[in-house]
Amino acid sequence: MEFHGAGDPYFGGTAADWALYNTGDGGQAFISAADAQRRKLVLAYFPTATEAEQAGTTASTRKGRISALPGKLRSEVPTGQISWIVGNKHVGEDDSELAVDIADRAKRAGATDADLIAQMVAYALACHRANQALVLHFQL
């Protein structure tokens, strides 16, 4: 989220808190919920708060305050299967390769909702980060 402006717009203020969306051209931008819905954009999900804040800072054009807010995974996200798949991959695998693999698996399983697929990919990347941290911690 990007927090920008001051005062409730209903009472003449300029506050507008926008979420970060994937723009479809590979980029990300802070957009109002109404505009994002009209353009059928998908929220940007990230495996860590640090990555979310970095992406937000990069995408900010209004120079507001950036905050990474935790999202709630949808119940359709198969967390057990995703963590098992990621656990069987090498920790050095490139993020983009992992993201493409998980998205392809989701589509082959019948997932058509872009938001659901985005959450699956973010969850897979979060599992990947956890595995990488374990390797560093145990110096494997």
Give structural notes.
There is one protein chain. This protein is 47% helix and 13% strand. With 140 residues, it is of the alpha+beta class. Strands 1, 2, 3, 4 and 5 form a five-stranded antiparallel β-sheet that branches. A hairpin with a 5-residue loop joins strand 2 and strand 3 (28-31). The mean pLDDT is 92.
Tell how many strands the DSSP assignment holds.
5
Mean pLDDT over all positions: 92
Spatial separation of the terminal alpha carbons: 37 Å
Q: H/E order of the elements?
A: EEEHEHEHHH
Please estimate the helix content: 40-55%
**Class based on secondary structure composition and strand pairing:** alpha+beta
Largest sheet: 5 strands, antiparallel
Number of helices in the DSSP assignment: 5
| Range of strand content | 5-15%
